[in-house]
Amino acid sequence: MRFETFVALRYLFSRRKQTFIYIISLMSILGVGLGVGALVVVLGVYNGLTTDMRDKILGANAHAIVMAHTPNAFEHVPDIAKRAGKAPHITGATPFIYSEVMLSSGRGVKGIILRGIDPQTAAPVVTMLQQLRAGSVADLEQEGTPGIIIGDELASRLGLIVGSRINMLSSSGESGASGFKPRIRPFVVRGIFKTGMYEYDSSLAFVTLAAARDTLGLPDGFLTGVEVTVDDLFAADKIAAGLSETLGYPFYVRHWMEMNANLFAALKLEKIGMFILLTMVVLIGSFSIVTSLVMLVMEKTRDIAILMSMGATRRTIRRIFMLQGTIIGFIGTMLGYAMGLSLGWALKRYQFIKLPENVYTLDHLPIIITWSDVLIIGASAMLLCFLATLYPARQASRLEPAEALRYE
User: Fold this and answer.
1) What are phi and psi of 218, to 5 degrees?
2) For the residues of 297-310, what is the DSSP string, one character each?
3) Which residues is 110 bridged to in the sheet?
4) What's the distance, CA 335 to chain centroid?
5) How many domains does the chain have?
6) Which domain does 134 fall in, by range?
7) CA–CA gap between residue 23 and residue 11 (Å, rounded)
8) How far is CA 388 from CA 28, 96, 222, 297, in A?
9) Looking at the domain assignment, is residue 258 inside a domain?
10) What is the pLDDT of residue 337?
11) Dihedral class, residue 366 (left if φ above 0, else alpha if ψ from -120 to 50, else beta)
């Protein structure tokens, strides 16, 4: 063991006469530990909520969308979905139609977003269709009255269940002698989904492409675009650029990062804000380290002078006190890791913090602790604790032995 480390440990753990300084050191360790533990848990909860929100958004929308600069482009290239599905890194592709219509039942009228889909290819791309609370996507192709899949909130508002009949009103009607007549088509509820996000559950519905064209008065072959999924979610921007080059003009591709840029930028800013706020707790602990070391320097003035008289250099004295503060920071960081990781594991394992389902998208508090966050938290805590040692260590190294021993 090096001389500086031996003396630092001796000062830290052998304080029979300096009880007050010892208690301050313990408070410093506890402060750093609480700050690190709080950061680990809070950032883990943030990651869990953000990941859940992202999965819900991507469950109702694909990773990227193929659009066209010119109208009727998809009618002139009917195999565009197959071409997109064969492109590199594309795992699925399905055509869709997007529009706004009105639904009416005996309980009232509600404006919704209508999505026309291909039941045979939509489920692997729009993953929310794989987890319907009732019915299935395949039921949309049943003979007779066209089928529709609606959200749980919309079904509750209009008093609908699977098998209920409902009318859809489209603005693409006809003008006659008696005035404008909206296009009205009957539908049967074939499925009900629930994502936990009110915007989707209350105002989104799915029908087949043929039913959407008939209701909206669109020509055969009309498409709004093609939804695609990719093999690497976080490389969607690069894959979308490559797909756009593959398909060529007039087609272009928008990816999920671009379409939800404002939302995820706001969430990222919130994460940075929480990190800075909770780092203040660690900073308070590091201030306690400054207090502890300053008082120790005052208490050990005679010992420092004797060490310097016996040949210890100013650099050696500085290292002793820097090591002591760093050891306090290290112990505090390890204690914080133990508390934060243990609480995070318990939250994930037992889910003992429940959330109201009508407010949040989950019924429990989600938590995802990543190693990158853990390492950044630990490095930040250690850096703050190290910086807290600089002033006391500098003051200790500047002591003059003769002056310190004059009145001893």
Assistant:
1) -100, 155
2) HHHTHHHHHHHHHT
3) 103
4) 26
5) 2
6) 70-248
7) 13
8) 11, 60, 67, 14
9) no
10) 93
11) beta
